[in-house]
Design goal:
Structural class: alpha/beta
Protein name: UDP-N-acetylglucosamine 2-epimerase (non-hydrolyzing)
GO molecular function: UDP-N-acetylglucosamine 2-epimerase activity
Distance between the termini: 16 Å
Strand order of the largest sheet: 3-2-1-4-5-6-7
Number of helices: 16
EC number: 5.1.3.14
Helix content: 40-55%
Shape: globular
Keywords: Isomerase
InterPro entries: UDP_GlcNAc_Epimerase_2_dom (IPR003331), WecB-like (IPR029767)
């Protein structure tokens, strides 16, 4: 069975590499990996850490790329790759433009698509933008749907997708066996120094498109307020390379003691830092899934989440983008140990670290049925 896995961003790579490792390990599967290069340096770091063999790299990343350029470049360049490889199935992940356009390119050549991390929904096509619509459109094309949770499966079934929908857990949990180590030494010297001081660490990430401008300013103001109220806290904020993000964040938070603005860190540093943090504040989707595996409460700096099972489980709380709301909810967790422990000890809804094995099992079963017809 020839399986082509296609991804192009760092978050996709973190979640797809554990799956690719399982695919590579089986003699009955020919694994082909195609990178679109929607991200470049940050993507390559993940590939190196997992030791993945890359067959094709479209290298589409360009200066000031837009949704239009990504869409056009992936669609045009995938055509020849798909014609050359003719895989039995193409695997894409989640909600990126790479995933949707790759699925579309495969559809044009009548190649089946498997959608990893399927079924997440906010039911607002503009939030997150363009991810919500990317994910929905990929679901319309996909032949196989690998849903992390029962809730995701239910979303797909409500939309009429009742065939080949499998609950697998989330592959990001699988990644920790490769990335997290109790004796880990950080590559980033600033993090290593912060950890030596043994204060409570709050890991912050905020960079989403819908938070650019006033929302990000309000998030930074909340961090300043919390810093003033809790001087012993250490905030570690890996700042996205997007110039619009960096301009706001550095203008508001640079030279503030114990607010550490660092460049983006690789997946090993991120996962190990997360595991040692007291609290995570983020607008990222992935961190909402990752932190609960370590018993770390997550405050979501958005007005909604496509991961409601984490909210229901109690590991995640949506606090919005208003300064006063962020400060109030964070203060509550910092001052009320019972409230904190309730979140920290809630059951992680994203699985047991064997999602990749389940996906491959379902893939092989599907292929055997296909060949027997």
């Amino acid at each position: 069975m020839k399986v082509m896995s296609v991804f192009g961003t760092r978050p996709e790579a973190i979640k797809m590499c554990p799956l690719v490792k399982v695919l590579e390990s089986l003699p009955q599967i020919e694994s082909v990996v195609c990178l679109t290069g929607q991200h470049r340096e940050m993507l390559q770091q993940v590939i190196n850490i997992f030791g993945i063999k890359v067959t094709h790299n479209l290298n589409i990343m360009r200066s000031e790329q837009t949704l239009y350029t990504i869409t056009i470049d992936v669609l045009l360049k995938m055509e020849s790759i798909l014609k050359q490889e003719r895989p039995d199935i193409v695997l894409v992940h989640g909600d990126t433009t790479t995933s949707f356009i790759t699925a579309l390119a495969a559809f044009y050549q009548k190649i089946p698509v498997g959608h990893v991390e399927a079924g997440l929904r906010t039911y607002d096509k503009y939030s997150p933008f363009p991810e919500e619509m990317n994910r929905c459109l990929t679901s319309e094309i996909a032949e196989l749907h690998f849903a992390p949770t029962e809730n995701n499966k239910n979303n797909l079934q409500k939309e009429g997708k009742r065939k080949n929908v499998f609950v697998t857990g989330n592959t990001v949990i699988d990644a920790f066996s490769t990335t997290v180590h109790s004796d880990y030494r950080f590559k980033n010297a600033e993090i290593q120094k912060v950890l030596k001081r043994a204060n409570k660490i709050i890991l912050v990430t905020a960079h989403r498109r819908e938070n650019l401008g006033k929302p990000l300013v309000q998030i930074c103001d909340a961090l300043l307020s919390l810093h003033q109220s809790f001087p012993d806290l250490e905030f570690v904020y890996p700042v996205h390379l997007n110039p619009k993000v960096r301009k706001i964040v550095f203008s508001k938070l640079s030279n503030v003691e114990k607010v550490h603005l660092i460049d983006p860190i690789d997946v090993e540093d991120m996962h190990n830092l997360m595991s040692r943090s007291y609290l995570v504040m983020t607008d990222s989707g992935g961190l909402q899934e990752e932190a609960p595996a370590f018993g770390i409460p997550v405050l979501v700096l958005r007005t909604e989440t496509e991961r409601p099972e984490a909210v229901k489980a109690g590991t995640v709380r949506v606090v919005g983008i208003k300064t006063e709301d962020i400060v109030e909810q964070t203060t509550k967790l910092l001052q009320d140990s019972k409230e904190y422990q309730t979140m920290a000890h809630a059951a992680n809804p994203y699985g047991d670290g064997h999602a990749s094995e389940r996906i491959v099992k379902y893939l092989l079963h599907w292929y055997e049925n296909l060949k027997s017809k």
